[in-house]
C-alpha cells in the first residue's frame, strides 16, 4: 500500500464519519510543494464500540486507533543535468482493541451469532508503532540510483485468554468448545457463565517488541532495449518476547479481579530474544523486443537467525546449559524468475511467468520452497477489459506456523513453532471482466466481475500436532474453492453516484481432515455505498455494509470456534477538499 503523497501544489482534505456501533472517524491531510521543497502531514483517529455482545459483563468489543504521518521532500531543479532528491517520512500509530480469538460453540452460534463469551472480557490488544524512512534519489542521463534507510519499532501486548479450566484442570479453549459441541454440560456452563463452581481463566500477556532496520540500494540503467536494475538489501530484525500470565476466577457470569503471576515468565519460550540478519543481492533485465517484453531476474539471500533464552525475568544470564544462544537457521538461497508480456495487437496480449520462491524459518521446520507458474491473456479497449490467468504453485516443502490464534487453544502449539507439511499444490484460474456504458437516461454505468477457482491440496501423507492427521489429496484448510466479487456502479450525472458490491466465498474447512464442527459453509455479503457531490470541494456519502444482515460462518478460531460476519452496519460521512 502507498501512503498519501506530497501534493504538487497546496491542498488538503478533511473527512468526518459517524455510524452504527459507536463508529467515529476523523481523517485529514494537508501539504504544499514549491519547486525545491514539499511537505505533507496526515492524521487519523478511528474508534468504535464493536458489534459483539459480551455476555454478562456488557463490555465493549471495539477499538481506538490513532495514526500520524509526516513527509518532507527536498529536491534540486527538475531540469538539472543531475537531479537529486531527499525524502523523509515519519509515522506514529497506536491502537487499543478489545478483541479476542475465541469463537463460539455450535449451539451458541445458532442461538446468537453475535455472542461473545463473558470470560473473554479482559482480552485486549495494545500496540504502538513508529517508522522512519530516509531516502536519496539521483538521476542523470539514462541512469538512476536510490538509497533507502528504514527503521520500524513495534511494541504490542495482546492480553488474551490462554487456558480455560475445566473441572479444575487446565484445557485449551478448543478442547472446551469441542466438549460443548458434544453436549458436555460442564463445558456448556463454563462457556455461558452458568457454572456455580468457580473455574480459573488463564490469560497471557503476549508482550513483544519488534525492531526492523535496514538499508536498500538500487541502481537502474536504461540501455536502449535493455533496462537493467541491480540492488542490494541489508536488514536486521529483532523480536523480544517477555510474556507472563494472569488469572481470574469465572463463576456465575462474573469475573474476579486479576491476579498476576508475579510478571515472571522464567526460562522458556516466553522469555527470549531472536535476532535475524539477512543480506540480499538481485539483478533484473527487462528486454524490449517490440511486441515481446521479457523480464529476467535472479536473487541471492543469506540469512542467520539466533535465539537467546534467559534464566530469569531479570535476564541476568543466558541459559547456556540448554545450548543458548542457539543458531536456529544459517543458510542461503538463490532464486530465479522470468516473465513476459506479448502484444498481439487489437487490444489483445499474453502474459506469463515462472518464479522460484522460498521462506526461511526459525521454529524447527525446514525452509519452505516453491515453484510458481502463471500464464494468461488480456484484452482491453476504451470501454471493456478482460483477463484470464492460470496459476500453479508447487510447494516442495510447505510449512505452517503456530500463531496467537492457535497457541494456547491447540494443544502442543507454541507461538513461533513451525511445522512442515511436505509437498503441496495450489493451482487455479482467475478471470476478471470490466465494462462501462451509457444508459438510455444518460447515466454512466460500470460493472466488474472477478472469479477465482482454487484447488489447494496436500501431496503427501503425514501427522503433526499442528496440521493433524493428513492424507494425500486432502484440501489445505481455509482455502475456498470458489471466490466471486461483483461491483456495479452508476454515475447519474447529477451529483449522485452509487456502488453495489457483492462477495461470495465457497465452502472450506478449518482443518485438513474436515468433519462436523470444523466446516465453513459458503457465505456471501452485499454492500451498498451512495455519494452525493454538493460542490467541487464537498461530498456526502452513506454506506451500508452487509446489507441483508447475513450471519454466515466466515472462520473458526480456534479450529472449532465459530466466527461470523459483521452485522449490518451504517456509516455517514462528509469529505471536504481544499
Number of strands: 34
Distance linking N and C termini: 24 Å
Mass-distribution shape = globular
Query: In the CATH scheme, what's the topology name of the largest domain?
Result: Maltoporin, Chain A
The largest sheet, given as strand count, sense and whether it forms a barrel, is: 22 strands, antiparallel, barrel
Helix content: under 10%
Q: pLDDT below 50 for ≥5 consecutive residues: which ranges?
A: 406-410
Helical stretch count? 3
Protein architecture, described:
The structure is a single chain. This protein is mostly beta strands and 578 residues long. It has two domains: 1-263, TonB-dependent receptor, beta-barrel domain (Maltoporin, Chain A, Beta Barrel), CATH 2.40.170.20; 346-567, Beta Barrel (Maltoporin, Chain A), CATH 2.40.170. The protein is built from three helices and 34 strands. It has helices at residues 106-111, 173-181, 185-192, and strands at 10-19, 24-33, 37-48, 53-54, 63-75, 82-97, 115-116, 124-140, 143-166, 169-171, 199-222, 226-242, 245-251, 254-255, 259-260, 271-288, 292-309, 326-345, 348-359, 368-380, 384-401, 418-438, 444-458, 462-464, 468-470, 482-491, 496-505, 508-509, 519-520, 523-533, 538-545, 553-556, 562-564, 569-577. It has a 22-stranded antiparallel beta barrel. A two-stranded parallel ribbon has the order 4-7. The protein is globular and about 80 Å long. The model is unreliable at 406-410 (pLDDT under 50).
Amino acid at each position: 500500500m502507498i501512503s498519501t503523497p506530497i501534493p504538487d501544489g497546496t491542498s488538503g482534505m478533511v473527512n468526518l464519519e459517524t455510524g452504527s456501533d459507536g463508529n467515529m472517524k476523523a481523517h485529514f491531510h494537508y501539504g504544499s510543494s514549491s519547486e525545491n521543497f514539499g511537505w505533507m502531514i496526515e492524521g487519523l483517529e478511528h474508534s468504535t464500540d464493536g458489534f459483539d455482545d459480551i455476555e454478562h459483563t456488557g463490555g465493549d468489543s471495539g477499538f481506538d486507533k490513532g495514526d500520524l504521518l509526516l513527509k518532507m521532500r527536498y529536491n534540486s531543479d527538475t531540469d538539472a543535468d543531475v537531479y537529486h532528491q531527499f525524502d523523509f517520512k515519519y509515522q506514529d500509530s497506536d491502537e487499543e482493541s478489545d478483541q479476542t480469538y475465541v469463537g463460539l460453540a455450535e449451539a451458541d452460534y445458532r442461538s446468537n451469532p453475535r455472542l461473545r463469551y463473558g470470560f473473554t472480557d479482559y482480552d485486549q490488544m495494545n500496540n504502538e508503532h513508529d517508522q522512519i524512512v530516509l531516502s536519496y534519489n539521483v538521476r542523470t542521463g539514462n541512469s538512476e540510483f536510490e538509497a533507502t534507510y528504514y527503521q520500524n519499532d513495534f511494541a504490542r501486548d495482546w492480553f488474551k485468554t490462554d487456558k480455560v479450566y475445566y473441572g479444575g484442570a487446565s484445557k485449551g479453549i478448543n478442547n472446551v468448545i469441542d466438549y460443548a459441541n458434544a453436549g458436555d454440560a460442564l463445558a456448556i456452563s463454563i462457556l455461558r457463565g452458568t457454572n456455580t463452581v468457580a473455574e480459573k481463566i488463564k490469560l497471557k500477556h503476549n508482550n513483544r517488541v519488534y525492531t526492523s532496520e535496514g538499508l536498500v540500494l538500487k541502481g537502474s540503467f536504461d540501455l536502449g532495449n535493455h533496462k537493467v536494475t541491480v540492488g542490494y538489501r541489508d536488514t536486521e530484525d529483532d523480536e523480544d518476547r517477555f510474556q507472563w500470565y494472569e488469572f481470574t476466577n469465572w463463576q456465575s457470569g462474573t469475573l474476579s479481579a486479576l491476579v498476576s503471576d508475579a510478571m515472571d515468565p522464567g526460562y522458556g519460550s516466553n522469555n527470549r530474544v531472536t535476532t535475524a540478519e539477512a543480506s540480499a543481492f538481485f539483478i533484473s533485465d527487462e528486454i524490449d523486443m517490440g511486441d515481446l517484453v521479457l523480464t529476467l531476474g535472479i536473487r541471492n539471500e543469506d540469512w542467520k537467525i539466533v535465539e537467546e533464552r534467559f534464566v530469569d525475568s531479570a535476564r541476568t544470564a543466558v541459559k547456556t546449559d540448554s545450548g543458548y544462544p542457539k543458531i536456529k537457521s544459517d543458510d542461503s538461497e538463490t532464486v530465479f524468475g522470468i516473465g513476459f508480456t506479448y502484444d498481439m495487437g487489437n487490444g489483445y496480449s499474453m502474459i506469463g511467468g515462472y518464479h522460484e520462491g522460498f521462506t526461511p524459518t526459525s521454529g524447527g521446520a525446514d525452509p519452505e520452497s516453491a515453484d510458481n507458474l502463471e500464464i494468461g491473456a488480456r484484452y482491453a479497449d476504451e470501454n471493456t477489459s478482460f483477463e484470464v490467468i492460470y496459476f500453479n504453485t508447487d510447494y516442495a516443502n510447505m510449512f505452517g506456523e503456530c500463531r496467537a490464534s492457535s497457541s494456547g487453544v491447540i494443544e502442543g502449539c507454541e507461538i513461533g513453532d513451525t511445522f512442515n507439511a511436505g509437498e503441496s499444490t495450489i493451482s487455479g484460474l482467475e478471470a476478471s471482466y470490466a465494462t462501462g456504458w451509457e444508459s438510455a437516461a444518460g447515466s454512466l454505468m460500470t460493472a466488474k466481475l472477478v472469479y477465482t477457482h482454487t484447488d489447494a491440496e496436500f501431496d503427501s501423507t503425514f501427522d503433526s500436532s499442528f496440521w493433524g492427521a493428513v492424507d494425500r489429496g486432502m484440501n489445505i484448510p481455509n482455502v475456498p474453492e470458489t471466490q466471486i466479487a461483483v461491483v456495479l456502479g452508476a454515475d447519474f450525472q447529477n451529483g449522485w453516484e452509487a456502488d453495489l458490491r457483492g462477495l461470495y466465498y465457497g465452502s472450506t474447512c478449518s482443518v485438513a481432515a474436515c468433519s462436523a464442527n470444523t466446516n465453513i459453509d459458503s457465505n456471501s455479503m452485499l454492500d451498498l455505498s451512495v455519494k452525493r457531490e454538493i460542490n467541487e470541494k464537498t461530498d456526502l456519502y452513506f454506506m451500508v455494509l452487509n446489507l441483508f444482515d447475513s450471519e454466515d460462518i466466515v472462520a473458526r478460531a480456534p479450529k472449532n470456534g465459530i466466527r461470523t460476519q459483521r452485522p449490518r452496519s451504517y456509516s455517514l460521512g462528509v469529505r471536504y477538499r481544499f
